[in-house]
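Sample 3 of the quickstart, ligand adenosine-5'-diphosphate:
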Amino acid sequence: MSGAPLLHIDDLWVRYRTATREIPAVQGVSFDLYRGGSIGLAGESGCGKSTLANAILRLLPKETEVDGRIELEGEDVLAMKPGRLRAVRWTSASIVFQGALHALNPVQRISKQIAEPMLLHRTETSKGAAIRRVRDLLEKVGLPGDRADSYPHQLSGGQRQRVLIAMALACDPHLLIADEPTTALDVMVQAQVLTLLADLRREHGLSMLFITHDLSVLTDVCDELLVMYAGRVVEEGPAHELFRSARHPYTRALAAAFPTIGDPSSRMRPSGLPGDPPDPAHLPDGCAFHPRCALAIDACRIDRPELRVAAPGRRAACVLVEEPVR
Ligand code: ADP
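Result:
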């Protein structure tokens, strides 16, 4: 890729502080996302994906410590003043969360909720223009414009998720961060929302950071994948290659664990992965994945492997990965 990245993350660390302990939820993550590109963040629950996504727009609890560098369109996000940050959250990058029911105000018509960021951050927008744009946005996400007058409870789960996407697009951001946007939806609606996101990306050149625990979903909408385990990236590379021929045993287990959309037989496949990811505050010595890894050898219990080149354009953090001969 050439030119400056839209989003540049360098050696990012995020530590939650509670009364009794410190939880290093993200541990030294680096990556670049270029304009029009789409990166998928995969990994089981608790691996640090949402923490990373929220750190990008500084949506973390106050007492959280964030170190490293986050640059959005060349601007240092960690140095932004509150006013600038509020504007950037809608106009440069916006987030779609999962669980649309909780993200929408139940006693406000959706037209008002979608228009609000436009009226706040695009002060040149008149009320009439905002209402017209709400209808356009709803149509863009596949909902009839007259749904603008509905309250959230009058819409289905899939429709509410579309409303959240419309809201995120209100101020024409260049980056859309989607955190498990399809997890609460049934498979048919999930496929529709994924198609919608892929269309928006193609038609509007939107860049996307897409987060889910379901690797098969990511290969449909992303060019590149980052697989996270215990706060670190353990494998990265082109999405389809990674899904088909994972180098890290954790990615392999993830790829086998989830159903492929449209392939009923794959729903029955057992994951074969025992246990849960470790508590980031108490990582085992060596590779954090070794206690669950069927291929672990003595070296895995001693050294924590760094990411290294596994093939052109691909890196994995596993001692068993052989570097290609140059
Ligand atoms: P994921 O998105 O991959 O499910 P999260 O980023 O939500 O992972 O969580 C990563 C780790 O940070 C987990 O151990 C989780 O318990 C911890 N964590 C998340 N949010 C908080 C918080 N507000 N305070 C303390 N710990 C948190």
